[in-house]
Amino acid sequence: MAEIRIKNLHKEFGTGQDKVVALENVNLEITGHSFVSIVGPSGCGKSTLLNILTGIETPTNGTVDITSDGHVAAPGYVFQAARLLPWRTVTDNLLFVQEDRSDSTKQRCQRYLEMVQLGDKGDKFPGELSGGMQQRVGIARAFSIEPDVLFMDEPFSHLDAITARALRRELHHMWDETKKMVVFVTHDVGEAVELSNRILVFAKGGSLEDDIQIDLPFPRDPADDEVAVAKAHVLRKFEELDLLAS
Amino acid sequence: MTDTATDTTAEAPQTPRVTEEELARKARRTELTSRWFWRILSYIVVLAVWEFALLDIFGFLRGTPLDPKLLPGPSEVVATFFEIWGEGTMPAAFQATLTRIAIGFGLSFLIGAMIGILMQSKWFEGFFKDAVLISLSAPGLIWVLITAIIFGNRPLGPTIAIILTTFALVTVNVSEGIKALPKELIDMAKSFQVGTFKRNRQIVIPHLAPYLFTGLRFGFSIAWKVTVLTEVFSSSEGIGFEMRISAVLFDMSEFLTWILAFFFFALFLEKVVLEAIERRYFRWRQAVTAS
Ligand SMILES: Nc1ncnc2c1ncn2[C@@H]1O[C@H](COP(=O)(O)OP(=O)(O)OP(=O)(O)O)[C@@H](O)[C@H]1O
Ligand SMILES: [Mg+2]
Predict the structure, then answer these.
(1) Which pLDDT tens digit goes with each residue over A20-70?
(2) N or C, which end of chain A is more exposed by having fewer CB within 10 Å?
(3) Whose CA is nearest to atom 2 of ligand 1?
């Protein structure tokens, strides 16, 4: 079981006049088989939080710990932009993040490419794919290492509605089956309510303003009354926090 | 005829992808053909003008015939080419010149790349900035003359002339490549716990390769000209030296032969060797520009 512990996390960029506070005194614990969505207006530090959790950025103050059964957890990261190596084929992009190149590893990569409907595109270069296809390769790459914690930064926002829906279902299945932890950033409150059992609301300035539990059974149909009520509840929180205008 | 016509129309809706690919291939073929057509035409025009000059058209216009000793015809030059080739002078001359280029430009590439890396620091940037600028803008002939005066026909002369004329091209490209390092890809690799060695091998080096290649390509084309020039002024072997000898002896046919050999070799390197390397290693870039 993975655990994330964040204590007094503070992050600022730049100094003096250019100083930007991206995260302000965040305290947070996520444990076990959670699907946590992070919502909030643009610039409230969502990507920065994921970057700190995955070791790309270091905190200005405070500590973060990510463990899985006592050892350091292996994170998988789906970025806001695909971030593929343009000089490697799709398959090689997946193999790049693997620990070995054994046959079973290659088969696993192929399986996840098929999951995102790109099973026949392994030999293509990223430049030969559409933007949505590239984003799907990024998703397959994160899945393919079968991480302890999966971090996703608005992974479906560039995709068409049908593909996004299929992948949402796929993501839910994976989370359900593997009992892994998912930390999911999104702009879309409906998407957050459909997928998560916990929603964190961040405000401008990078403070954690609300922590909402959603204990509805899966699968959740947006047309369902209870789901609609939950969505309305989150949106009301947004209104109270005056987040909708920004 | 009718059969194939109905065939394609019947098949088109079922296999649109094949038809599309075929159309694209056809378009590519037409484009290639027309490009080669214009390229070859340029050679025909040049040869024709050369031939006409001998047919005394110009002589007729000027009132005096053109002395074929001053401008021997294409066929005579080709004959001379094989004559010189048979004597074994040509491979030896090429070997001498190419060895000089390999040593000079090899050193220049290393020095240029090193300065490019050093220039990432503010202090070294200040230190080297003007030297790079001067090397880029001063005509190569200056260095050729200076080194010829100082070193005479000692081998150090051409080497230094090549370094002074080409190192900056490598420096500028390496420096630009380092400045444009893809931080977002390196961050991605870090988050997936990819080690430093693998990151360098699979991100940094492939990213820098096109920059190095550009430096190599432009640097080489200058190194090549500068080397021949140094040989014209001060040397006892090599292509430039042979040119000087035939010029001094007033043997135009031989002089033109050397120029042609030089020209074809440069063309071969550029069009066959360098382009093959580019096709082989930078296929992904064609994919990027095509989409
Ligand atoms: N590397 C950086 N250097 C300077 N400022 C940065 C850097 N990264 C982020 N910031 C700043 O930190 C703040 C939070 O940025 P972040 O990317 O985390 O926002 P976000 O919530 O992900 O926004 P969005 O929804 O638009 O993706 C912004 O004000 C941004 O300008
Ligand atoms: Mg973001």
Answers:
(1) 999 999 999 999 999 999 998 889 999 999 999 999 999 999 999 999 988
(2) C
(3) A13
Given the CA of residue A48, which atom of ligand 1 is nearest to it? 18
Closest chain B residue to A144, measured at CA: B192
Domain boundaries, chain A: 1-70+181-246
Q: Which of B66, B86, B103 is the last residue of a domain?
A: B66
Global confidence as pTM: 0.81
Q: Separation of A185 CA from ligand 2 center, angstroms?
A: 8
Ligand nearest to the CA of A79: 2
Pocket test for ligand 1, best of A18, A19, A47, A189 (most atoms within 8 A of CB): A47
Nearest CA in chain A to B201: A96
Is the domain of B248 the same as that of B120?
yes
Q: Which atom of ligand 1 is nearest to the CA of A14?
A: 4
ipTM value: 0.91
Would the pLDDT of B63 be above 80? no
Structural domain for B146, as ranges: 75-290
Q: pLDDT digit string (tens) for A185-235?
A: 998 899 999 999 999 999 988 999 999 999 998 888 888 888 899 999 888
- Chain A positions touching B192 (Cβ under 8 A) are 75-77, 97, 141, 145
Q: What's the CATH number of domain A1-70+181-246, 1.20.1600.10, 2.60.200.40, 1.10.20.10, 3.40.50.300?
A: 3.40.50.300
pLDDT value at residue B66: 60
List CB contacts (< 8 A) between B191 and chain A: 51, 54-56, 75, 77
* Shared domain check, B111 and B26: no
Asked if B188 lies within 8 A of A86 by C-beta distance, the reply is no
Looking at B47, B66, B85, which one is the last position of a domain? B66
Distance A45 CA to ligand 1 centre (A): 6
Domain for residue B7, yes or no? no
- B200, part of any domain: yes
Q: Looking at the complex, does the CB of residue B197 fall below 8 Å from at least one CB of chain A?
A: no
Q: Is residue B9 part of a domain?
A: no
Are residue B109 and residue B239 in the same domain, yes or no? yes
- The reported pLDDT for the residue numbered B60 is 61
Residue B1's pLDDT band (cuts 50, 70, 90)? very low
